[in-house]
Specification:
95 residues; alpha+beta; hypothetical protein tt1805
């Protein structure tokens, strides 16, 4: 059984906070099965956007795991924000 997107995101937030980091939910998507995108911003200004990995990465032995692919990186956060906005227009249920 796969955990809901809501539960998975909540667990990720707790893990980040527990490690002394900061995280925020920018867009709350579908509770049960919204696609999760992660926009990581480093201390030196670097950014990286991760999105759901292709279905070929799915491991039937571990159905509860979520896999991510690096979609883009760079120093210009506005470019990655724009890419995320395009994803939201395509699928408004993303996290």
């Amino acid at each position: 059984m796969r955990v809901t997107a809501d539960l998975w995101v909540s667990a990720l937030l707790r893990r980040v906070f527990g490690a002394g980091g900061f995280a925020a939910v920018v867009n709350r998507g579908a509770t049960e099965a919204g696609a999760v995108f992660i926009l990581a911003r480093g201390r030196m200004g670097e950014t990286a956007l991760y999105g759901p990995a292709p279905q070929t990465s799915y491991d039937s032995a571990k159905p509860e795991d979520r896999f991510f692919s690096l979609l883009a990186t760079g120093d210009d956060a506005a470019v990655l924000d724009a890419r995320l906005e395009r994803e939201k227009k395509f699928d408004p249920d993303i996290w």
